[in-house]
Specification:
The structure is a homodimer of 273-residue chains. The first copy, chain A, has 273 residues and is an alpha/beta fold. Chain A contains 13 helices and ten strands. In chain A, helix 6 links the parallel strand 3 (94-99) and strand 4.
Amino acid sequence: MTVLSFAQQIAQATKHNRSLLCIGLDPDMNKFPEAVLREEWPIFTFNRAIIEMTHDLVCAYKPQIAFYHAQRAEDQLEMTIQYLKEHHPHIPVILDAKRGDVGSTAQQYALEAFERYQADAVTVNPYLGLDAMEPFLDYKDKGVIILCHTSNKGAKDIQELHVNDIFLYEKIAQLSASRWNYNQNVGLVIGGTYPEALAKIRAIIGDILVLVPGVGAQGAAIEPIVTHGKTPDGGGLMISASRSILYASHHDDFAKAARNAALLLRDEINQYR
Amino acid sequence: MTVLSFAQQIAQATKHNRSLLCIGLDPDMNKFPEAVLREEWPIFTFNRAIIEMTHDLVCAYKPQIAFYHAQRAEDQLEMTIQYLKEHHPHIPVILDAKRGDVGSTAQQYALEAFERYQADAVTVNPYLGLDAMEPFLDYKDKGVIILCHTSNKGAKDIQELHVNDIFLYEKIAQLSASRWNYNQNVGLVIGGTYPEALAKIRAIIGDILVLVPGVGAQGAAIEPIVTHGKTPDGGGLMISASRSILYASHHDDFAKAARNAALLLRDEINQYR
C-alpha cells in the first residue's frame, strides 16, 4: 500500500467532498445541549455527532488540544481520533497543538501527536528554530503546519516586526518554503483575518498547504481568503471554522444545525475557487 | 493570609534553601531503574523519590509536560504536583509547557496550567503577541515565563534576526519588561548556552526573574550564567537542570545520586552569587 503524504490526503479529501472546509473540534461543554452533558463521554459523544453529520462536507478535522487538556479529557480526544480513523479514514486529522520546544522535548511532543494520538498533521510554533521542529518534520508522511501569521489582533506585535526589509512572518514563510521543507511536508497557518498577508505569502510559498483559521466566530470574510490564498488549481487551502459550526444551535438539533452551517460555508468557499 | 506573588515565592525558597537551582521533572521511563518500572505509578514514584531527596536544595521544580503527554501520564503529573503542594508547599512549581495560542484557546491553556494542575507559573511562547498571553498574565499571583532566547542551537534561526538595530530576543525582553508586565508577574526563559545574551537581557529587564535551562546535559557553564544573570542581591535566577540530576544513576540508588548531583550544582552556583 502506498502511503500518501499529508498534502495528498488533503487533496484527495478536497476532491472527494468538493471542500476546502476544515472543522475545528473545540469542545466547550458550556455550550453543549443538556442531553449530551448527561452522557458518560460527553465530549466524544458531541464530536461523534458532529462528525456523522459533516464528514461528507470537509477536507479535514482539527481538534484543538487545549480544550481537551483543560477538561482532563485526553481520553476523549483519543476516542475521537480513533473513531475518525475507523469510520472515516480518508478524512485527515490535524492536531492543533502549536507545540514548540527544544529537541529532546520536541521529540516527546512528536510522539504525543503522531504515536499517541495518531494525528496526520500537527501545528507547531517556529520561534525556537529548525532544530525544534525537526522531530516533527522527520515524520515525512505527516504534515507539519507552522505558525506564520496568526488570526488574532496581537499577531502584529511580533509577526509584523520588520526583519531587514520584510515582515517577520514573510521570513517565516521563506524559511518554511525552503530550508525547513526538506521532507516536503510543511504547511503554514495564516489567519483569514489578514488576507493581504495571505496574498503575499502565497507568492512566496508556491503550492504549499495553508491552514486558515479566523472565519466564522472571528469574522474573516471568505472571498478574499479564497481569492488570495488558493493555488492555480483552486486548492492549497484548509479553511477552518469551529464555533460557528459546532454551536450553530445549543439545542438537541445541534448536529443538524452544524451540518447546515458547514454546508453553507463549504458552498460559499467553493463559489470563489 | 497574604498571597505571595510567584517572584516572592521563588525569593522565599531561594533564601530558605540557599539555592537558585530548579530541578526539571522530565520523566524518561527508558532511564528508570527496574524496580521503579514495576510500580503501579512509575513516573509518580520516580518523581516522589527525587523530590524527597532534593526538596531542601531547590528554589523550584519544573515538570516538562511533554514527557507526561507522550506517556499518557497526565494523571501522574497531577499526582506529582499534588504531592508537592501537600508536602512541600513552599517550593513553587513551574509547568514547562511553552503554550501559545489565540485568546479563546489560550484561556483553555491557562485553565490547564493554573486550575487543573495548580502550577505556580507556566512557560509561554511570545510569537502570537500580547493578547495570546493575557489569559495567563491576568492571573496576577501566577508567574508567566516568556521564551526570550532558548537554549537550543536553532534558537538563532529566528530569535537572533535583526529587528531594526536589535535582535528579536532583545525586543521580546523589552516588551516583557514593559507593556507585557502589567501585573508584575512576567519572567523570561534564557538558555544558559547563550551567556552573552543573558548579560544583554539583564541590562534591559531590571530584576525580572530569569529561568535558565541548558546546564547539565546541554553543557552550559555555570560561572558566566550567574555572573551575567544575577541581580544585585545575588538572585533573580532559576537555573534549571534535569537529566544530569534525574539520571545521575540508572540504578536503585538514583535518588541518592540525584541528591549528590543537585548538591554539587547548587553549591557551584552559590560560589558565584
